[in-house]
Design brief:
The protein has 511 residues and is of the alpha/beta class. It has 15 helices and 27 strands. α1 (8-17) packs across α2 (33-49) and α2 crosses α3 (66-78). The strands form six sheets. It has a nine-stranded mixed sheet, sandwiched between helices. Strands 16, 17, 18, 20, 21 and 22 form a six-stranded antiparallel sheet that branches.
């Protein structure tokens, strides 16, 4: 197979055409396209000399950084898969994901050295371990099985990203170089970008959106990437004005926090063209706030398994199709199926969203069973209930899989329930997502305690905080006498959600 879709070509072409142009602007300084390609090539040479090659896996624990981007393109050059882990996780969770993904090498940023060591200590046989500072002299490859022969190919995996699902524990979704190529091509056909753009990236690089929504496209076209390690509303507003940022991507919480900041009204936003919203629908009042500042908002829908871009509502429809996720991107196919029968529905319809096209992933790493569950007749089953109108606009109705999104992070209730159920005081537990003004949704746990347990809400939240990332810890816990079950002894989460909705809709104040 030819290698016309391998991604290192993007920065190689830019380094030849515009070597002096700034590729990355971050707190460490400026990196030109010539420097970015030279560093990535040197890293690839060092990794190859140490025995690493096509089909291998390199796991990282790092914040957003130029070093991480250099390693990404070195991996793309050699046909190696990069596995960026979520630095918000606990050592228990990280150690599990290291074991699950079986990397040939682990690279840890200095800022996360303590977290890395705590995770490494939990591994019975840790893989070779190193820091980014030592990438020029990586440790020798230790695996007995040699790398695959030949240069990188289109179907080689470039990213392995952990994503939560209805089964509870995160699964390792694989994205190929061709997946990323087509995803970025389709994005560019909807929201054009040129070498005159200044792209602000703040989404973490353990998310598909941290790479495949604007970041990689910026390198393809020769734009400048302003790279931030974490979200800080005051700094983001300063950068928009100071760097002349033309586009950025965030979740609704991102834009809410920016709009709520005291500097928002006085910040010059005139450089902004179209900004991208993902991770959940944009509230109407927030849309109006940004529209009042003459900023165009492009909303959409995606999932990691689709690289992630699926649906897009261009800015021209933002006020006429409020609540809609739009239509499929170019090179993306969508269908609606009856959730009960799997029958494909035509025209205006309500059902499960199915996705096809070259951006759809090949499957989960070493999990054929989970992969088989998300495919049917060549379609990716999203588990999301949608409405499609007569004009082909899609609206996301609900997540069939019961997941909720907190501040742009997918949370699986099953995973949180599994953790709480290990507490000696917990007899039964159910977790749902409830609305939250700041984070979109947060978790609420309903707990049935054992007799005379003596536990409290603070006790259980502290227990979770030791074992789960902060965004997974339930914001509130309600102690109940019993949980609602169906005839199959499965918890009826919809009953809990309906009861919570009734509480919020009850009138307040004096009677």
């Amino acid at each position: 197979m030819s290698s016309q879709h391998t991604l290192v070509r993007w920065i190689a072409d830019r380094a030849r055409a515009i070597p002096e142009a700034v590729a990355i602007d971050d707190r460490s300084g400026l990196t030109t396209y010539a420097e970015l390609y030279a560093r990535s090539r040197a890293t690839a040479v060092a990794l190859s000399a140490a025995g690493y090659g096509r089909g291998d896996r390199i796991l990282t624990l790092t914040g957003n950084s130029t070093d991480h981007i250099v390693l990404f393109f070195a991996c793309a050059d050699l046909g190696i898969a990069l596995i960026p882990l979520n630095w918000r996780l606990t050592p228990v969770e990280i150690a599990h994901q290291v074991e699950q993904s079986d990397p040939h090498l682990v690279v840890v940023e200095d800022d996360y050295a303590d977290l890395g060591e705590a995770s490494r200590a939990r591994l019975e046989t840790p893989p070779p371990w190193m820091t980014f500072a030592d990438l020029t002299t990586p440790p020798a490859r230790t695996s007995d099985e040699p790398p695959l022969p030949g240069p990188a190919e289109d179907d080689d995996v470039i990213l392995v990203l952990f994503t939560s699902g209805s089964s509870g524990l995160p699964k390792a979704a694989q994205l190929t170089q061709a997946n990323c190529f087509w995803n970025n091509l389709s994005f560019s056909r909807t929201i054009p970008m040129t070498d005159n753009d200044v792209v602000l990236t703040v989404l973490p690089q353990f998310h598909s959106g941290g790479w495949n929504v604007q970041t990689l496209l910026a390198f393809w076209v020769g734009a400048t990437l302003v790279l931030e390690r974490q979200f800080d509303a005051a700094r983001i507003l300063h950068l928009i004005e100071d760097r002349g940022v033309t586009t950025l991507m965030g979740v609704p919480t991102t834009y809410q926090l920016l709009a709520d900041h005291p500097d928002f009204d006085d910040t010059d936003l005139t450089s902004l063209g179209t900004v991208v919203v993902g991770g959940g629908p944009m509230p109407v009042p927030l849309l109006r706030t940004w529209h009042a500042r003459d900023v165009e908002l492009c909303q959409g829908y995606g999932l990691t398994e689709a690289s992630p871009n699926v649906l897009c509502l261009p800015a021209r429809y933002a006020t006429t199709h409020i609540g809609s996720a739009g239509k499929p991107y170019p090179y993306v196919d969508c269908a609606v199926a009856d959730p009960a029968t799997g029958e494909i529905l035509e025209g205006a319809a309500t059902g499960e969203l199915l996705v096809g096209g070259p951006g759809v992933f090949p499957g989960y790493f070493r999990d054929d069973e989970a992969t088989a569950r998300v495919f049917r007749d060549g379609w990716l089953l999203t588990g999301d209930l949608v409405e499609r109108d007569e004009n082909g606009f899609y609206t996301i109705v609900d997540r069939i899989k019961d997941m909720y999104i907190s501040g742009g992070e997918n949370v699986s209730p099953v995973e949180v329930e599994a953790t709480l159920s290990l507490h000696e005081a917990v007899q039964a537990v159910a977790v749902i997502g409830i609305p939250d003004d700041r984070w979109g949704e947060v978790g609420k746990a309903f707990v049935v305690c054992r007799e005379e347990s003596g536990t409290s809400e603070d006790d259980l939240r502290a227990y979770c905080a030791e074992r789960l990332a902060k965004f997974k810890v339930p914001k509130s816990i309600e102690f109940v006498a019993q949980l609602p079950y169906n005839s199959m002894n499965k918890i009826r989460r919809f009953s809990l959600r309906d009861a919570e909705k009734e509480k919020t809709e009850q009138p307040t104040g004096d009677t």
